[in-house]
Amino acid sequence: MLEGFVPWPGAFARRYRARGYWEDRPLGAVLTEALARHRHREALVFRDERVSFLELNRRIDRLARYLLDLEVRPLDRVVMQLPNWPAFVYLYFALVRVGAIPVMALPPHRQREIGHFLTFTEAVGYAVPGTFGRFNYPAMAVEMRQVAPTLRHVFVAGEPCPTGCIALDAIPEPRHTQADLEVHSTALDPMEPAVFQLSGGTTGLPKIIPRTHNDYVFNSKGFAPIHGMDASIVLLVVLPIAHNFALASPGIQGCLFNGGRVVLSDSPRAEAAFPLIERERITHLELVPALLIQWLHDPTLLRHDVSSVRVINTGGQKLQPEVKRLARQRFPNAIVQEVFGMAEGLLCCPRLDDPEEVLIETVGRPMCPDDEVRLVDDDEQDVPEGAIGELIVRGPYTLRGYYKAADYNATAFTADGFYKTGDLMRWHRSGNLIVEGRKKDLINRGGEKISAEEVENLILGHAAVKNVACVAVPDPVLGERMCACVVPQPGARLALDDLCAYLLQQGIAKFKLPERLEIFDDLPLVPGFNKVAKKVLRELLAQKAQAQAR
């Protein structure tokens, strides 16, 4: 068992296996079986490239055999920072085919985050695009060789590919045979981690979420039918595939397992997405609310035929009822199905045939009968019916501990193994869940969870800053934006542009930058504690916004 991984206790593992949630087959083997079953169908579309299930299987296996040539072995970690390109799909499934563990980084991550992922997981590989946006990923990858002593292989998709790196588009014919790969794959342990997802944790840099072969297969196979996924579906992927939502909940895994077609777009903009919806007859969309709101208010939407869309899944933040109603008007044949889920495991949503009230007002109910969900108070006691409580959960696809985080796990889980999500919820009269907020100190910017503490710690390094607190302020499109509340050093001056430029020099992802700066003489404190009263700060900022609006 991988050191630092927390497995399920034996009694729970036996129950989940007996009830059929766990198949005891590696994720790569389950995919290979699905690709063979649907081999004559079209699997993947990107721009002008169209790939059948048969060809997809061939490309994945060829790359997997080459990984064996490179001596990439079971439980080796490889950080993946690729856009929504076919290369992501090939490498991701090739890694799980050989039992290596993809670490799901995002394109906006920079030196600070990537350096942490590489060193913390002791990664042997790192995959980047040659050219994407205006950032030089290969240069950062070469730089990371000096940071991460375990890094042996840098994979590059597209051009340029620096000397000493491996071009994913031009790998040589592997020495290992298909028979070698089959023998290797059958020896994999389905109880070991298959994928490392990233948390949106409140305590600095993201925590590492281990997802095993058994639980990640069930995560996608169990959730796909609830969204009407079968061989007839066409899924448009515009969110970063590395996100758990787009990858496996049910995402591309659920789509391919069922013989559906995946259409990739490396841009979420309306001018890229709307023609794809019309041309490919997209049936399923997976979006965050901020993106859906942008699309709904884009005047070009009405000029495109979107009648093929059957299901719009949204997740990452709460979707307001009025947005759901507008989406039903703009997409006349679609059901808007809000998903409440987390990379740590639990997945909830209404069912497609639920009453309108449930679809509009709730985030539904858990996927699995053995998802044990409780709403509790600060003493971990169940709250009365109808009251708001913190959601805690355990189940066959919810982690039992973050990777190499024993001290944090001691506070993030109850003594009997329930994961404390930090989300505040209450039960709807229908028996479904309603999201009411959260306890954790996160800023939810359009579905991207930003740790306030991480950004605060960096801002404190600025010479002009004496103290800082980062809080969320409401935003009609993104849900929340970050405001940095700064107490300057005596006589110092600070502007938002200067602060953001400083943070970018620290190698932070752009989506984590504060978008508002407020200067304070002192920060309010919680009475009796040397702790910033962020609730008071949010109230002060709201009052200022109201005054400015008058």
Folded structure, characterized:
- The chain is an alpha/beta fold.
- The chain folds into 3 domains: about 25-190, Rossmann fold; about 210-440, ANL, N-terminal domain (Rossmann fold, 3-Layer(aba) Sandwich), CATH 3.40.50.12780; about 445-550, 2-Layer Sandwich (GMP Synthetase, Chain A, domain 3), CATH 3.30.300.
- The protein is about 30% helix and about 25% strand.
- The strands form 7 sheets. It has a 7-stranded mixed beta sheet with strand order 2-1-11-10-12-13-14, with helices on both faces.
- α3 (about 55-70) packs across α4 (about 85-100).
Assigned CATH architecture of the largest domain: 3-Layer(aba) Sandwich
Number of helices: 18
Extract low-pLDDT stretches.
none
Overall spatial form: globular
CA gyration radius, whole angstroms: 23 Å
Q: What is the CATH superfamily of the largest domain?
A: ANL, N-terminal domain
Total discrete domains: 3
Question: What is the strand tally?
Answer: 26
Strand content: 15-25%
Rounded to the nearest angstrom, the distance between the terminal CA atoms is 61 Å
Structural class: alpha/beta
- CATH class of the largest domain, anyone? Alpha Beta
